[in-house]
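lol ok so funny story. i was supposed to be doing the assay writeup but got distracted and ended up predicting the structure for this chain instead. priorities right. anyway since i did it might as well share w the group, maybe its usefull for someone
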Amino acid sequence: MRILLAEDEVTIAVTLGDALEAAGHEVVHVADTQSALKVLENGRVECVITDIRMPGAGGMSVLARAKELDPRRPVVLTTGYATIDQAVEAMRLGAANYVQKPFRNEAIVAMVGTFARVASLEAENDGLRRQLAAQQGPEGVVGASPAMQAVFQRLRTVAPTDATVLVQGESGTGKERIARAIHQLSPRSQGPFVAISCAALPETLLESELFGHERGAFTDARKERRGRFEMANGGTFFLDDIDDMPLALQVKLLRVLQEREIERLGAEAPVEVDIRVVAATKVPLRARVAEGKFREDLFYRLDVVRLVLPPLRERAGDVPLLARHFLDRQKKGRELTIPRSAMAALEKYPWPGNVREIENAVLRAVSLAGERNELALEDLLPDDPRWKSLAETAAREVDQGVRPLREVLHEKEREMIEKALAATGGARMKAAEMLGISRKVLWEKIKEHGLGEADEAEGAS
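and the output, tada:
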């Protein structure tokens, strides 16, 4: 991290500068306000540490200009003449912290380490979002892998036509989302999109749901009812789990595809329907035909254009994009992140439940995160003993390699806070004294690290 250190006291500037450089940061030291403003205008500065009283207008003007040029840049003010009014004004202008002299260099180094880590995660998230936007397919379907890009290209080609489409893919791969994308990109997009799962209803109810019935067609048929085919007139009809459709209904579906007309139960005349059919199967239909569980003539009617969705285990490069996509949908104003080691574990996990499983994993981790902005690996990974150890090994491999110093510093900061709280029996004032920081700063860090309840009274004291 490139740090502007504006400090006119040589002893403080030298010792703090050395400590920051030893921690892996680049330090640009100036001794007056004008020089600090010049560096801000002309150089890349990621963090500012400035004394409030120094030659020129002082640190408050440095703070104001630094935040004006980059509102996200952290600025720390130091002073030997602290006042409540001054602290309030500093926070109003956007100071990240307000530290009274004398201070411990280790506390400043830890603070800057936290800033660096947050900046790195924000940059990583911004990069993922840009990649996500570039690789997002129709109807928000996410996929950067070659297999998914091929699906998107074929989808865009076939959508404007009226051809019947068969979508093949394992459970959870997003077959209905693909069907909706076909509908949205077709001339029928202003018409209805009607979906039904052939596996969700028993055969007797499924027939009535699909074709509708006349009054008196059966015991409980007290009034006429339109079926789903009629509801989809002028639009797209999506038949999910077509591989589970009973053989008796397959004959009737074949007639719908051939004649574009249906017969309600108990009706004397057929009703014409103008629909496009998209069907989805979780197993290859040709195998069902070979087993005698699916009509061959219906198979050929459905298999006009086939879209095969690869399982997530065959598109591992899409895992970070999907995780970020679902995380963005859940953040609700928070800057939620997934640590690099946890992301490595997610990429190793095979996701047998596919996209639906990773969506549920992110939702669960967000729900369990509480006040933490980082999602925990143990909350993200499903409790699946077959694969969990493999994923955890991947996370350890990342941890054991060369890591950004800011990550190590952040973890060390948490460790030291935990030790101080344990040593003082949870007495925060004593713990803050041991750590060389104010009780307010300790309160903020406890909240940041998710180490306990940070109530308003504690934060104000």
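The domain at 2-123 is CATH 3.40.50.2300 (Rossmann fold). The mean pLDDT is 82.
back to the writeup now i swear
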